[in-house]
Amino acid sequence: MFAMVRFTMEDLPDEILEYIISLTSSYKDLEDCKLVSKRWHRSVLNVIRLKKNNLLRAIAENKVRWQHMRPSDMAPTITKRYSHSACCYGNSMFVFGGCTSTSTTFNDLWRLDLTRRQWVRPLAMGSYPSPKACASLVIHRDNLVLFGGWTHPSPYPLHQAWRLFNELHLYSMESNRWILSCTPSTPPPPTAGHSASVHKDNMVVFGGLQMQGGLGHYANSNDVWVFNLENPSWRKQAIAPGPRPHARYGGCGGPNMVFSDVWLLKMKDAVWSWKELPVHHQQRAAAHMWCHPACKVIFSLLLPALSRALLVQFS
C-alpha cells in the first residue's frame, strides 16, 4: 500500500506559483493575491516586474496586439462616441461625454471594470456637467476633475456658433455626486481641446481652443493655467521669456500646422519655463497626427498610430 501524500499550493516551486499567478487579472485579482501570505506577496511583485518588462519590450519591438473587447449582450454598454474624456483609477476606467457622428454631445459618465471587463453606469447625484466633448478629465485623490469642453450648436435656429465651456466639475467616487466648483478667482476663458495633468495638488492646463472677445470668436492658446485642488482657485501661470510651444489645440495650430514637437515644463521656481526636448528618429514618427491619445508607460510615452504604436522614451 502506498501512503497518501497531500500537497498544497505552498508546496509548488516559486516558478510554478508565479506562472499560475501571472494568469490572473492584472487588476483586482492580482492585488488580492498579495494578501494570501508573504510568499504570495513576493511572488506577485515578481510577476508585476516581469509583466512591466515584457510590456516595455513588446512596445519597443512593435509587438503589441490590439484586442477588441465585445460587451456582453445582457450587460449595459456605452454608446458609440468620439472626443470623449477618459482616465484610469484603480481597477476602473472612467469615460465622460463625447460626441456622436451627428454632432450630438453627451454628459453621461461610464465606468469600465477592468477586472470583469464590464461597463457600469453610475447614476450620480448633484449638479451634472453640460453635455460636451473635448473636455479634460483627470484624477485627484478619490475625485474626477472635469474641465472645459465644447458642444455643437443645435440645428435650429440656424447659424448658431459653437459653445465652449470653462466650468469645472468634481465627481466624488465616495458619494457618487457631481459638484460644480465655483471660486472667486478669475477662471480661464471657455476652453476645449486642451491638455491637463495633476501635479501634487494642482491641475495644470495647457493650450486649447479658447473663446476670445465674444461668442463666435475663437483662437488657439499656449497659456498655462493652474487650478489649486486643495484650496480651489485659478491662476494664470507666469512663464519666463524664451522659446515656448506654439498655440495649439489637440496638437494642431490650424490648417497645415500639425506639430510633432516635445516640450518640458519646468515648475521648480515661481516663474515656470519651457524647454524643447530633442527627439531622435523623427523619420519613424507618424505623419500629420493630431488629437491623438497618449499614455505614460513607466518612463516612456505611448502614442497609438494608424499602423503601429509609437514609443517616445525619456531619460
Automatic annotation (TrEMBL):
It holds the Pfam family F-box-like. Coiled coil: none annotated. Gene3D superfamilies: 1.20.1280.50, Kelch-type beta propeller. One of its GO terms (molecular function) is ubiquitin-like ligase-substrate adaptor activity. This is F-box domain-containing protein. GO terms for cellular component: SCF ubiquitin ligase complex. The lineage of its organism: Eukaryota, Metazoa, Ecdysozoa, Arthropoda, Hexapoda. PROSITE patterns: FBOX. Residues 6-59 form the F-box domain. It comes from Ladona fulva (Scarce chaser dragonfly).
